[in-house]
């Protein structure tokens, strides 16, 4: 029995211990449970002076009556910190009360910049995020310091030093001061290539955008190194080689070494050119029912035997995709497959047409366009929401956006939509300035208006972000004035119709007679294909010729000026009585060129011109149309392609003039030698004007030609004349051939090119044949040869020509040396 009692006592003790242990565990569990999630009945906000209690409670996102764990308290701290309003946040819980204690950030009174001159305050203000009346944040100020450094790197001052200073100006208010030491401008001392043999360094330097620093770099700003620019130049090199047959081309490496002593970069680009290929067999294969592969061969831009070009393959893909989509095969997918033959160095291409996946565009998402409106970007896409997704058409839209000139870069990517067959097309753009202030100047030699000329203009190619073009300009010369306003809406009523107008006024007081023209036009251009455009315009102008108060009457025999009794010049004015009535003042009758008594006022030595002058002001109301075919690879310095234009102008819709004028011009450019960048071009032009409606053609409706047709002659240097005065011709024809090339020895970075040319042409025909002293109405050929110097200067293209006429008439007016200059920056 005793043993039994002992056993029971032990069990009892053990049970008590177990119960105690269980109680302790239960208490701990309850404590843990309480710590993990306690009910919040009240939120107490402390330490705030400017931010309202309810605002802080709202930022905390905690609702009374809900459980809040320690993890939930941490989340509250993070949410309040993310507002940028607080320097410190502490969250605790006492029973059912959640206590939020804050230290508020100071309010920024002013943001100041010191030590900056190369970047103005306005530019730096755009770079930083800290702003007046905002909350001060040290993290944001640190980020702003880095943003300012990047801004200086962007202008070639990568060694700029930037620091921030906080100045207390009152309770809870501070000034943030950014101190800048701009340093010297970082330059590019040398750009060199390794591994290139087919193309020399000088040629490849023209392909890339980065340039070695030179005497004009401070204007051109193309010697500013940035890693992203070097990456873009790598891509430019790839495109250059891929389009010239080097399908295996690789950029092995590219690096920039900074010499801290001279603050200059040395850039080395190592390449592997590989072999040069030509196109082998080119075929089209289709697995899609209903597609006639044979009928698609006309769309090919790649032909057997030609130098391989990735660009030609891309153009073929676009052509085939367009043709298939237009034939009802919206989901047909064209894939090029290359068949490389290393022995013959040829690449055959099979364009395989398969049925692609049925995917639709869910939406177009556009990002990065702060200025440009969304619809300006959307309208360049041939696909929109709900359309069949086509990668080729999307890539063509990307090319169109790049061609607009509104963006530094355009990136198009895709993301899955909300359904398996939906695709989101994402367009990321980086905008660039589209406005230009253009200043031009030069000196015109010879001709009717010798002397200095100047022009100033303001151009905006993306007006108000709407993609509209507007230009206002004014020109001034020794004896000329001109004013112009142009406006173009490239997508009228949402269609690819370029509608615009021009208004102008020009005054010329040089040559045989004064001219005042005031007019304008309304024009419409509609694309027929990617390269073919139709243009229609209505034109209205009023012309006045001769001095409004007449010109001095001269004795045609002696050349002396006629004066009245008070020694004032006697001037001719249309409507004067017979000049012989002034015989008393003149001391004798006024004589004409043949010594006979003059019967009409004389403004020039040409009675035909005099008659036209006395008919002014003269109004011309006309409609014109033209077809333009343009495949040039560049609008400023084409190397390949064609530009063909033909059109007519019909005058007779009211006004005084009635004529039909027909003109045509064609130019072709070809890269004769790629290594030496030798460019050849030929062009031909012609025109004919005839009177209609039984009326006589007015002299000023004729063509006036000279240096614009055959260099080496004045602006109205050849063609029909009367008494030495140009009266224009009814027909003209001409042809020019030219070759341009970089100048040897001189660095291509300076933008100099030489030119040799040969011109031939003629201006003939007149409705005034048979009148006294009219000559040059036959189609006698004029010709010249010459040389030129072209400078693609930072201010715009400048050109000097010397032309030697080889064929001319005795009465022609020549101008061997000519100089032209215009500028933009």
TrEMBL record:
Signal peptide per UniProt: 1-37
Gene3D superfamilies per record: membrane protein fhac, membrane protein fhac: a member of the omp85/tpsb transporter family
Keywords, sorted A to Z: Cell outer membrane, Membrane, Repeat, Signal, Transmembrane, Transmembrane beta strand
Record carries keyword Membrane: yes
InterPro entries documented for this protein: Bac_surfAg_D15, BamA/TamA_POTRA, D15-like, OM_assembly_BamA, POTRA
Pfam families: Omp85, POTRA
Places the protein is found: Cell outer membrane; Membrane
Domain POTRA, chain residue ranges per copy: 38-105, 106-183, 186-274, 359-432
PANTHER family attached to this UniProt entry: OUTER MEMBRANE PROTEIN ASSEMBLY FACTOR BAMA (PTHR12815:SF23), SORTING AND ASSEMBLY MACHINERY SAMM50 PROTEIN FAMILY MEMBER (PTHR12815)
UniProt function note: Part of the outer membrane protein assembly complex, which is involved in assembly and insertion of beta-barrel proteins into the outer membrane.
Subunit structure: Part of the Bam complex.
Family that this chain belongs to: Belongs to the BamA family.
Listed name of the protein: Outer membrane protein assembly factor BamA
């Amino acid at each position: 029995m005793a043993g039994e009692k002992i056993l029971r006592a032990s069990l009892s003790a053990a049970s008590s211990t177990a119960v105690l242990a269980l109680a302790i565990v239960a208490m701990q569990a309850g404590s843990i449970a309480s710590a993990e999630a306690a009910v919040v009945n009240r939120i107490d906000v402390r330490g705030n002076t400017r931010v309202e209690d309810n605002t802080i409670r709202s930022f905390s996102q905690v609702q009374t009556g809900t459980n809040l764990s320690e993890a939930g308290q941490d989340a509250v701290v993070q949410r309040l910190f993310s507002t940028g309003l607080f320097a410190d946040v502490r969250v605790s819980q006492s029973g059912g009360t959640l206590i939020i204690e804050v230290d508020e950030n100071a309010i920024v009174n002013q943001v100041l910049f010191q030590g900056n001159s190369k970047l103005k305050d306005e530019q730096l203000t755009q770079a930083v995020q800290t702003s007046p009346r905002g909350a001060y944040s040290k993290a944001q100020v640190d980020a702003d310091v880095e943003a300012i450094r990047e801004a200086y790197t962007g202008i070639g001052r990568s060694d700029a030093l930037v620091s921030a200073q906080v100045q207390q100006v009152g309770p809870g208010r501070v000034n943030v001061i950014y101190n800048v030491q701009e340093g010297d401008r970082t330059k590019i001392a040398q750009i060199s290539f390794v591994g290139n043999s087919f193309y020399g360094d000088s040629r490849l330097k023209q392909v890339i955008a980065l340039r070695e620093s030179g005497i004009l770099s401070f204007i051109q700003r193309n010697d500013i190194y940035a890693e992203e620019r070097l990456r873009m130049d790598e891509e430019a090199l790839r495109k250059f080689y891929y389009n010239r047959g080097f399908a295996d081309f690789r950029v092995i490496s590219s690096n920039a070494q900074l010499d801290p002593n001279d603050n200059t970069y040395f850039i080395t680009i190592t390449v592997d050119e590989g072999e040069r290929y030509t196109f082998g067999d080119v075929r089209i294969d289709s697995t899609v029912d209903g597609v006639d592969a044979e009928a698609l061969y006309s769309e090919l831009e790649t032909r057997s035997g030609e130098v391989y070009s990735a660009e030609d393959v891309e153009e073929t893909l676009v052509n085939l995709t367009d043709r298939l989509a237009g034939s009802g095969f919206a989901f047909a997918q064209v894939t090029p497959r290359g068949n490389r033959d290393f022995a013959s160095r040829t690449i055959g291409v099979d364009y395989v047409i398969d049925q692609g996946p049925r995917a639709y565009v869910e939406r177009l998402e556009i990002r990065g366009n702060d200025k440009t409106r969304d619809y300006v970007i959307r309208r360049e896409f041939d696909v929109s929401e709900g359309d069949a997704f086509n990668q080729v058409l999307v890539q063509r839209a990307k090319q169109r956006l790049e061609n607009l000139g509104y963006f530094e870069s355009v990136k198009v990517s895709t993301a899955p939509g909300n359904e398996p067959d939906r695709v989101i097309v994402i367009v990321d753009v980086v905008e660039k300035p589209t406005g230009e202030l253009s200043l031009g100047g030069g000196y015109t030699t010879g001709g009717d208006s010798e002397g200095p000329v100047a022009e100033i203009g303001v151009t905006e190619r993306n007006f108000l972000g709407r993609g509209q073009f507007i230009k206002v300009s004014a020109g001034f010369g020794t004896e000329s004035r001109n004013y112009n306003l142009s406006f173009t809406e490239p997508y009228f009523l949402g269609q690819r119709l370029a509608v615009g107008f021009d208004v102008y006024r020009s005054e010329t007081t040089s040559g045989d007679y004064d001219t005042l023209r005031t007019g304008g036009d309304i024009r419409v251009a509609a694309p027929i294909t990617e390269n073919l455009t139709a243009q229609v315009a209505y034109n209205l102008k009023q012309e006045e010729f001769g001095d409004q108060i007449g010109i001095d009457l001269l004795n045609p025999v002696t050349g002396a000026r006629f004066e009245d009794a008070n020694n004032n010049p006697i001037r001719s004015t249309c409507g004067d009585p017979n000049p012989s009535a002034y015989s008393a003042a003149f001391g004798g009758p006024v004589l004409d060129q043949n010594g006979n008594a003059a019967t009409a006022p004389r403004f020039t030595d040409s009675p035909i011109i005099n008659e036209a002058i006395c008919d002014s002001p003269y109004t011309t109301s006309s409609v014109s149309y033209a077809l333009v075919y343009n495949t040039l690879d560049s609008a400023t310095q084409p190397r390949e392609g064609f530009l063909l234009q033909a059109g007519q102008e019909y005058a007779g819709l009211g006004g005084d003039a009635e004529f039909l004028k027909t003109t045509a011009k064609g130019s072709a450019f070809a890269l004769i030698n790629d290594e030496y960048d030798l460019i050849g071009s030929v062009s031909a032009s012609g025109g004919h004007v005839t009177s209609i409606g039984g009326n006589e053609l007015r002299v000023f409706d004729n063509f006036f030609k000279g240096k614009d047709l055959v260099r080496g002659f004045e602006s109205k240097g050849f063609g029909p004349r009367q008494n030495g005065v140009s009266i224009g011709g009814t027909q003209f024809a001409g042809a020019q051939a030219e070759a341009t090339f970089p100048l040897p020895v001189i660095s291509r970075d300076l933008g100099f090119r030489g030119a040799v040319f040969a011109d031939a042409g003629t201006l003939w025909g007149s409705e005034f044949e048979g009148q006294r002293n009219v000559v040059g109405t036959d189609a006698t050929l004029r010709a010249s040869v010459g040389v030129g110097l072209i400078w693609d200067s930072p201010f715009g293209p400048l050109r000097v020509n010397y032309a030697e006429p080889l064929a001319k008439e005795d009465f022609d007016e020549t101008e061997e040396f000519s100089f032209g200059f215009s500028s933009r920056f």
